[in-house]
Hints:
The protein has one domain: YefM-like fold (3-Layer(aba) Sandwich). The model has no long low-confidence stretch (mean pLDDT 87). It is built from 4 helices and 3 strands, in the order βααββαα. It starts with a strand and ends with a helix. β2 and β3 (34-39) form a beta hairpin. Strands 1-2-3 form a 3-stranded mixed beta sheet. The longest helix has 11 residues, at 13-23. By secondary structure, it is an alpha+beta fold.
Amino acid sequence: MKVVSTTVARKNIKHILDEVKHSNEIFVVGRHSRHDAIIIKFPEHYNPSVSDITNINANSSSFDFLKDEPDLYSKDDLQEVYA
């Protein structure tokens, strides 16, 4: 994650957007040593029926560690409890 000032972001917005789009870099933009905004890549598969934060999390690598975890419940277990 790179932190830049609003002045730097304004002068280099094309470069910043290209870097976000092509290398999934994350930028934080701020003023006076405060973090005010974050620039991240827009989800490739946006689902309008869920919240923006859900779309971002679903399309990020935030939860990739769960792929290595064993499944604790079967689909039948979940249907039995929540059906």
